[in-house]
Amino acid sequence: MKKIIKCSVLILTFLLASCYGTEDDTDNICNGNCNVFNGRVYTENNNGIPDVEITLSYTLNQIGANYERIIAKSKTDANGNYIIEAFIKDSEFNVGFFHLTLDENKIESSITSEFYKPSELVNEVAPRINECSFSDLENRNQITTIDYRIPYKTNFTVNLNDYNLTTPNDRFGVGNRIEYGFQRGYNRFLTKQSTATGFGYADGLNTTLIIPAVYGENYLTIYKFKNGLVDNVFETITINNPNTSEPLNYSY
Asked: Which of 34, 40, 75, 227 could form an S-S bond across to 30 if both were Cys, CB 3.0 to 4.6 Å?
């Protein structure tokens, strides 16, 4: 009986090891039938960021089988351009996800304070500031172009008015999501406020907050939790010049 148990454990261990793993193909050079992935990493004033490492990988997550293949790596040139030529397996087309991941520490150290650094944004669970995922790779003729854009930093004023607690759990706050990073799909991230979180909250009857923002579109959430009910307001605010923008006013 003990021998049977030991054999069963060994078989189970082997099966788990074969179903969950990472394959590293970054040393392999694609010499033919390559898919091309390219783009540019740059700040809003059109300056490219050089020497940013970008990794192309593939994942397949299924019940009982999680697999990752690190396919290739590249670095941006002096103008911030990158190109990756990689061999995609037949079994990877139309199944699973491809990922472009860049070195956000390099971004952090390469840009001036007039632009948003990754550390100034709230890196929510998904998507991540340094990653872009996509699944629409169908054949070897496709060229996938995805830029990474870093916007200017600015701010505007929000007045949270008439906040009157009726229960200890009541909250009245504001958060701002901005477009940042890989220019594909949903790439909005919360700007950090004074508490290092993405939301600032009223602390009295009337509260004035300076909200980190970008030139162009800002995606505000006005958070209202009152008497156990959520009554949020969502607005898109365009900022052309914060010095001439009127304060935004919201009532509880």
From this structure: 34
